[in-house]
Write a structure and sequence with these properties.
single chain, mainly alpha, 19 helices
Length: 389
Amino acid sequence: AAHYAVLAALAKEARWQDAEALTEQMRSRGVPRDVYTYTSIVHALGRAGHWERARVLVRNMVRGRLETRPNVVTFSALMGACLACDEPAAAMATFHDMELCGVRPDAKALTHFFTACRAVDPPQGARALDIFRTQTECRDGVQPVTSTYNALIAALGSAGLCDDALAVLDEMEEADMEERSPNGITYNAALFACARAGRASDARLLCARMDAAGVRRDAVTYAELLRALARGGCLRESLQILDELEQGVREVRPNLVVYNVMLAECARSIGASSDDVDDDDLLSFVDRTVSSMESAGGDLSPDPFTRRAHLLALENANEWRRAAEVSRSTGADLDILRGVVYRGVDAARITLPLALEPLRTAANAVVASGRRARELGARELGARQQGKP
């Protein structure tokens, strides 16, 4: 028991080398090494970022090269390690390996699999829903919990399957079970699905359902609501809600994520005739908001997403000279090639010098270095001719 307690502590601290050394000591002393022993090492490796080494260990267990076979906890630990290392495809492959081994998933394994389905490119929402139905609707099937549903809804939303995401939310509400009760993450994931699909009406209804369920809205809620409204042709309404957030009328104050979402949606709407706000007003809003964020500083300081939205707004408004100035002053990236291809000669004339400036600087440095080398060589040759060391 003492060995297992130490292994658990080492795994928590990501000390995988010490965990492996302790496991070897257990072998030499005749202490049994069971599935939890090796699962602890998988946890330690995962926390240390060594998902590939963890996968090799689990595969050795599967092939009978170690004293025990992996169980669902082992496979879940490996899936978690893959996700922590941004390897969703490896996490999905681990889930399939678990199925081939005849190990039945539990709620945590399903949650990891759905999270991987969301993160993989392209998102595999339909696959996630198929696994969910297969594993939960059979006899003695998995009993999903709220986090399982949340990951599934997020995967469906990322795949553009808004109707399916809303249907899963309906199931949670109809089940009326505490362990499956929708929380803020659930509703935010459903709002994300609506935002991707531009479903403004459904986004409004979801917020009303949150209020009725007693779930507090947060900044993420409003970020997705604003995105859904903007993409659903209700940009003016989203701007009004943002103003209310700034005035303190709503539950929360806008944070960097909320501003970045609003800036991005305004930027992409410039030049789109279907939107209900004048392009000049949109560009003025973007300029004013970025300036306010710069003045506020702290948590509202513009980040690369802010700069990208600002440049996109200027690009769509054909303000290429201003875009070049903003890029030069802030160090933000400017999409030169898109300007050349889609905006024509005028854009290229303004932006290409900016793109070539780093090359010119590098070339000047090379020339200066060569000149310096020649000067040193000439001095050395003169010294030799004069008999000096």
